[in-house]
Amino acid sequence: MTPHTSATHTPTDAMSTIGATHQPLRERVRDLVRDRIVRGEFAPGDRLVERVLAEEMGVSRVPVREALTLLKGEGFVQDVPRRGVIVTVLAKEDVDDLFDVRVALEVQCARLASTRATDDEIQALAAIADEADAALARGDVDAIADLNQAFHDAVPRMAHNRILASTLEPLEGRLHWVLRQNRSPEILLAEHRELVEALALRDADAAADVALRHVDTSRALCHEIMFGDED
């Protein structure tokens, strides 16, 4: 397979993004490559070549090499003999492991958010749900995926538990990667609306129940899309 490149990312665009923060260069490159993996610009099995990425981003090969090493540790890429670095091909066990973590952490996030979130935070979450419904109505798949990610990022913050948030943080990229595999957004967005309503009522049990059902729904949809399971 030839090295994967994308016409949507030019060296100028990448350098503009890279220069926008004060992170170490390897971390900025990592974030850019990770984002392209999560968004599907680099698909599972695609080969990632240091020279090509360095040219696209207008950087040397050293930070690209270091960024790929970081992404290996996060599970996004892997070394394959005679092929080099490729985007990880997720096995069913990998996906189930992630969803098992979601059950453990997101249900607790929802329960805590029901009592700790501010009214403004709940209103902001409702606004994300409204935007997602509007995106669904106009068939904007990219916007739906972005808003789904924003919704799932917001709920842990609303739990106001630093340890819980720090535990979720290194997993968020892989969770978003898996979440973007879903192709039935209307089901997931309806459950988002249910969660908003439970949080607004400050009903911890209802919020936890919705969060649990939402993880189960997402797991089933991902299995169907990624592995052909219909159970």
Description:
The chain has 231 residues and is mainly alpha-helical. The chain has two domains: 77 residues, Winged helix-like DNA-binding domain superfamily/Winged helix DNA-binding domain (Arc Repressor Mutant, subunit A, Orthogonal Bundle), CATH 1.10.10.10; 136 residues, Up-down Bundle (Four Helix Bundle (Hemerythrin (Met), subunit A)), CATH 1.20.120. Helices cover 71% and strands 3% of the residues. It has ten helices and two strands. Strand 1 and strand 2 form a beta hairpin. Helix 2 crosses helix 4, helix 2 crosses helix 8 and helix 5 runs parallel beside helix 9. The N terminus is likely disordered.
User: Might you state the CATH topology name of the largest domain?
Assistant: Four Helix Bundle (Hemerythrin (Met), subunit A)
Strand order of the largest sheet: 1-2
Distance between the termini: 33 Å
What would the average pLDDT be, to the nearest integer?
Answer: 89
Coarse morphology: globular
Number of helical segments?
10
Structural class: mainly alpha
Radius of gyration using CA atoms only = 19 Å
Which CATH architecture of the largest domain? Answer: Up-down Bundle
Helix content: over 70%
The number of distinct structural domains comes to 2
The major pleated sheet works out as:
2 strands, antiparallel
CATH-level-4 superfamily name of the largest domain:
GntR ligand-binding domain-like
Low-confidence stretches at least 5 residues in length (pLDDT < 50)?
1-12
What are the secondary-structure elements, in order, as H or E? Answer: HHHHEEHHHHHH
Number of strands: 2
CATH class (first level) name of the largest domain: Mainly Alpha
